[in-house]
Design a protein that fits this description.
Layout: H1 2-12, H2 19-27, H3 36-49, H4 63-77, H5 81-93, H6 99-106, H7 114-125, H8 134-145, H9 152-164, H10 171-186, H11 195-213, H12 218-248, H13 258-277, H14 284-298, H15 315-329, H16 333-346, H17 353-367, H18 371-375, H19 378-383, H20 390-405, H21 415-421, H22 428-445, H23 449-452, H24 454-461, H25 477-483, H26 491-503, H27 507-526, H28 535-548, H29 560-569, H30 575-614, H31 619-642, H32 645-659, H33 669-678, H34 680-713, H35 723-752
Helix pairs in contact: 1-2, 1-3, 4-7, 7-9, 8-9, 10-11, 11-12, 11-13, 12-13, 12-14, 13-15, 14-15, 14-16, 15-16, 15-17, 16-17, 17-20, 20-22, 24-26, 27-28, 27-30, 28-31, 30-31, 31-32, 31-33, 32-33
């Protein structure tokens, strides 16, 4: 419904300045929906609004033709490229992307839609080849290779498109392209963001030329190609190391000019990519780069060490050095082990944003190969989720999610709680990112993850650290400083997270969470396993809040409105599924009722005595929970309380006291319980009288039926009887009627009593 409404609006008002952004934010995220029908609907809408409105640049003549390019710019701005990538994949599988569409998109290259056009071309190229490559080479020579200033973002899209379509180039074009790129690499003039792709392309083209163009045998060709690649990559490494020795070696000057710093970035970046192609056991530059970071970022250099450079460089050079050290670390585990402590220091809060981001990237790459080495730094990595800089938080969250989705990083506590904390971030993009991961990825793989860690979350967010079971996954001091939600000031933040967790549980998970809260926290307080002071008070208060919340109630006990809406939307739902769901709900209801009778109410009663003894103000919270419980299980609770008149009187008094504070909200459940408890004997008497009344009325009804049948049998004889007998019969009927009226009056009198 939302997709349809937004689409109708944007099609009717394509010139509206703000509507396209609302449309993108409302429609695109639904591509990640687990429902296939929802995905298909969104893909259909995207095709209609974006693809079908793309025409050749010279044929654009209305606002609808401009709309796709506005939307694509917004997609890039909101960082929704992955969702658009997903849509392109589905379109390719469905045969939606035709040659004429590609031709129309290519016509926008070099216009004011240039970036968006290259973005679409690069995305489509991941799933299908573009046979027309002339425009790619033309743009590369004019705007990248021979240009004095290069648009980094656009140039990356162009080179990515060339890389994905290099097999469509002629052999002559490939050799010429490889020669130009190698020339830029050897002179260290290649744009910094393009160095990696330049080397990838040169590597591929060298292998292709050896095997296809020179027509060597397969085994021999691979060896020749490998030797050639090692040769030009080795030259790049040697050139870079000689330059670094001159700039940051033991005999180099401490001060480096800004021009030399720019050149250093080129050499250091090239060194890192060349090492990936041509690994070396002993790199002279390893210690040089390590010393550069220690001197510039960690202040670890010593005046006594005369064999080391003691200068400093700008943060940009350090950031590039971190990436290169990360690539070098991938070659040998021993090198990685020696560099991980340095990376940990670079994540310090004193470091600049680019230092932290690149350190996170380096550690993420290392984690894919040497997970155990990096795990010790996970607390430091998580602290970056709470950095003041938005880019640091955004990149850290993206990288951690990536590691978990690829199963390099297991979801353990307290990392899980740190991720939930990010739901409170002030940036909407981060909120959407973490919520999307939790709903569309994590809960799909681990359906019970919320209930599994719910009780522990109560201990964690209140920073209760002395429990024998739930206080094992403690935070480091650095984590506690930035992730703590303890105290009254953060109560609403904690409750928001609790509600979110409960909302994303199934009924059986909510039941389990309820049971565990009662057994582990409420009973824990009653049995003195949890100290009712400090964070223990807040812990119990949060537990009672969760138990009283609407979100923890089973779905069939919640408002029927939602169920009605769902029924309207799912009229064609599978009948077997409906029956299964009903049976499951019925079974859960019976189990829950049994649990209320056998466990919950006895625990509440015991806790009430404990809180009364301590004169704790939390009695009010406990009675609020009991009132909520009464709404669903009044009969079961009445049966328990009726067995103990003294207890019933106490509970009735407590409910009356707490009820006075909630009358303004119209909550009458407490009054119902108190009346039910105090009037239990009267109810029993009324019920007994009602049974007697029903028996008497039944006897009278049976007698009337018998008399009626008898009258019908003798009806034919009435005309032959004398008039005297008729008078006697009337007199008898009158007496019977008076007798019945007397009995009825007596029964009404008893009921009034």
């Amino acid at each position: 419904m939302l997709v349809q409404c937004l689409t109708e609006l944007i099609e009717r008002f394509p010139k509206h300045s703000k509507l396209p952004r609302f449309w993108v934010r409302g429609v695109f995220p639904l591509l990640a929906d687990q429902e296939v029908k929802s995905q298909e609907k969104v893909l259909e809408v995207l095709e209609g609004v974006i693809l079908k409105n793309i025409v050749s640049f010279d044929r654009m003549d209305n606002a609808h033709h401009n709309l796709p390019w506005i939307i694509l710019d917004i997609v890039e701005d909101l960082k929704l490229q992955k969702l658009f990538n997903f849509a392109c994949h589905k379109w390719m599988l469905g045969g939606v992307i035709k040659p004429h569409l590609l031709k129309n998109i290519i016509s926008h290259v070099g216009t004011y839609h240039n970036n968006a056009a290259w973005f679409v071309l690069a995305t489509i190229s991941e799933y299908m080849s573009i046979k027309d490559t002339d425009f790619m080479l033309e743009y590369f020579h004019k705007n990248i290779h021979n240009a004095t200033e290069v648009d980094n973002y656009c140039s990356q899209l162009v080179i990515e498109t060339i890389f994905l379509n290099w097999t469509q180039f002629s052999d002559a074009d490939l050799l010429h392209l490889c020669s130009e790129m190698l020339n830029s690499l050897n002179h260290f003039t290649a744009p910094l963001p393009l160095i990696s792709r330049y080397m990838d392309l040169c590597n591929r083209i060298t292998e292709h030329a050896t095997l296809t163009i020179e027509k060597h045998e397969a085994g021999q060709a691979q060896q020749i190609a490998r030797t050639r690649v090692q040769e030009w990559a080795g030259k790049l490494i040697d050139s870079a190391e000689r330059f670094l020795e001159r700039q940051i070696g033991a005999n180099a000057q401490a001060e480096i000019s800004p021009e030399d710093e720019d050149l250093m970035c080129q050499y250091i970046h090239t060194l890192g990519d060349a090492v990936l192609i041509s690994p070396r056991k002993n790199l002279k530059s390893l210690e040089l780069l390590k010393n550069l970071l220690e001197s510039s970022e960690c202040n670890l250099s010593s005046e006594k060490e005369n064999n080391k450079w003691k200068g400093k460089v700008c943060a940009r050079v350090s950031a590039v050095a971190i990436i290169t050290l990360g690539k070098i670390s991938l070659q040998r585990e021993k090198t990685a082990t020696s560099l991980v402590p340095l990376f940990g220091k670079l994540l310090s809060h004193r470091s600049k944003p680019e230092i932290k981001i690149n350190t996170m990237i380096a550690l993420t790459d290392l984690c894919t190969k040497y997970t155990s080495i990096v795990e010790k730094l996970l607390p430091n990595m998580c602290v970056c989720l709470r950095d003041d800089d938005l880019l640091v938080r955004e990149n850290t969250l993206t990288l951690l999610i990536q590691l978990m989705q690829e199963d390099y990083l297991k979801l353990r506590c307290p990392i899980f709680f740190h991720l939930l904390y990010m739901l409170l971030d002030e940036d909407p993009g981060i909120k959407d990112m973490i919520s999307g991961f939790l709903v569309n990825s994590l809960l799909v793989k681990q359906k019970n993850v919320m209930s599994q860690h719910f009780v522990e979350s109560l201990f964690h967010y209140n920073h209760y650290t002395t429990h024998t079971v739930y206080s094992k996954n403690l935070m480091s001091a650095a984590e506690a400083e930035v992730f703590s939600l303890s105290g009254d000031d953060n109560i609403e933040k904690r409750r928001f997270i609790y509600r979110y967790m409960l909302e994303h549980m199934q009924d059986d998970h909510r039941f389990k969470a309820t049971y565990n809260i009662c057994v582990d926290i409420l009973a824990g307080v009653s049995d003195d396993k949890i100290e009712l002071k400090g964070s223990g008070v807040a812990l119990l208060k949060d537990a009672l809040y969760c138990l009283s919340s609407q979100e923890i109630r089973l779905s069939h006990l919640q408002s029927n409105k939602q169920d009605k809406d769902d029924d309207d939307e799912d009229e064609d739902i599978n009948v077997a599924q409906v029956i299964t769901n009903i049976a499951k709900k019925t079974l859960i209801s019976q189990v829950v009722k049994k649990n209320v009778i056998e466990h919950t109410v006895p625990i509440i009663i015991k806790l009430k005595h404990k809180l009364k003894q301590l004169k704790s103000p939390l009695v009010k919270d406990l009675m609020a929970y009991l009132r909520e419980l009464m709404k669903d299980y009044k009969t079961e609770i009445n049966e328990i309380l009726a067995a103990d008149k003294e207890l019933a009187a106490e509970v009735a008094f407590d409910l009356e006291s707490s009820m006075n504070q909630s009358q303004s909200s119209g909550d009458e459940s407490g009054d119902d319980l108190m009346k039910a408890v105090t009037d239990k004997s009267v109810l029993k008497q009324i019920m007994a009288q009602a049974v007697v009344q029903v028996e008497r009325l039944s006897a009278i009804y049976e007698e009337e039926e018998a008399n009626t049948q008898k009258d019908n049998e003798t009806n034919t004889q009435k005309d032959n009887q004398p008039e005297e007998k008729d008078d006697e019969k009337k007199e008898k009927e009158k007496v019977d009627e008076e007798h019945k009226e007397a009995e009825a009056e007596e029964e009404h009198s008893q009921m009034d009593t």
